[in-house]
Amino acid sequence: MNKSILVLGTRGIPNVPGGVESHCQSLYPLLVEKYALDIMVTARKPYVPYTESVYEGVKLKALPTMTNKSLEAPLHSFLAAFYAIKEGVDIVHVHAIGSGLVIPLLRLFGKKVVFTHHSQNYDHQKWGKVAKFILRLGEKWAMKYSSEVIVISDFMQNLMNEKYGRNDTHLIFNGVNPPQLPAPSKINDYLSKYDLKPRDYIIAVGRFSQEKGLDVLLEAYKLSGIKKKLVLVGDSDHVTEYSYRLKNTAREMDNVILTGFLSGEELHSIFSQADIFVLPSFSEGLPIALLEAMSFSLPAIVSDIPANKAVHLDEKCYFPCGDSQKLAALLTMTVDQPLVCYAEYLKKYDWQLIAQQTHDVFLALDNG
User: Fold this and answer.
1) What is the C-alpha separation between 238 and 242, in angstroms, rounded?
2) Structure pTM?
């Protein structure tokens, strides 16, 4: 396959926080390495230090956008779409429904479009009525006009068939890389930075926005009376009333540690040594943070939303979404439990397999 591919719908790579960003950072270097594809990922200038660069064989191009939570993704997507048209690329791979608005334009100019549906973002509490309307429209146009559609969970596959009659979607899961940890001495250095000890803290990893439910976790932690520390890894892209309130509440509590966004060795070191991983989200696609926790064998407690249930953990790992009392009880029951072997679960979340399946979708464009 000797065609040029442009990617839009991500803030950028490498090491830009976010589920779509982690997905792209893992996937595209593998596609370049295994299949010698010509791939360019478009990034949003506020989030990356380059205008043009290369990451593990993937070309990178930063385009401007507004740092406004409602306009940022659509504006950047239109700029990236016009760039794709100007550069004459063959295939555009679009990520996330906020970017789905540009797909009719790309098809009008003869581009073949692969769309990956990561999450029903319109379920997120942070969006107002207009933003939710735009996101729903992006999903509708993506389903109607994309040449090929990838979904990341069986739940999403069934939903797209029910809502739009799109019964030809490709089910390709998110992935997780095998753990790569630094030397024990370096891990201890990272832990010492936050005054942490191995298996002596609970961890949650995610953006500080309402749909992640971290306020529910703080309430549950307070109710539980657990003496182990609670570590919140993440922050918000834009200061909001919710993120401001969440951080203030956390700072007023004993034994709650805010690390900010972490990446690379530091993230893996802090992540891997926790006692419990908690994901209290109200909305997810297929959460990479949960897959990473599983790769570190951490006992997991997750909300019972469909996207989390689709991972098919043991029933005892789930609590009713938004119920801080039930979460508190589950935290108390789960502390000091042994590590868990998730080897069988993780087989289908292998990036080598995911790269092969994605390449097959690109090949299907030639046969379509």
Assistant:
1) 10
2) 0.83
Tell me how far apart the terminal alpha carbons of the chain are, to the nearest angstrom.
14
Residues recorded for the chain: 368
Q: CA 228, CA 197: separation in Å to the nearest integer?
A: 10
Q: Residues 8, 62: one domain?
A: yes
Residue 148 lies in domain: 4-175+350-367
**Residues 74 and 106 both lie in one domain:** yes
Q: What is the pLDDT of residues 335-354, one digit of tens each?
A: 999 999 999 889 889 999 99
Whether residues 168 and 225 fall in one domain: no
Tokens found for residue 320: 């009713």
Q: Under 8 Å CB-to-CB from 252, ≥6 apart: which residues? A: none
- 18: its two tokens: 């976010």
- E strands, 132-210, in order: 148-151, 170-171, 201-205
- Give the burial string for 235-269 (b: 16+ CB within 10 Å, else e): bbbeeeebbeebbeebeeeeebbbbebbeebbbbb
Could you report the per-residue pLDDT of 254-280, keeping only the tens digit for each? 999 999 999 889 999 999 999 999 999
List the one residue out of 310, 8, 305 whose CA is nearest residue 138.
8
CATH code for the domain of 267: 3.40.50.2000
Question: Is the domain of 91 the same as that of 210?
Answer: no
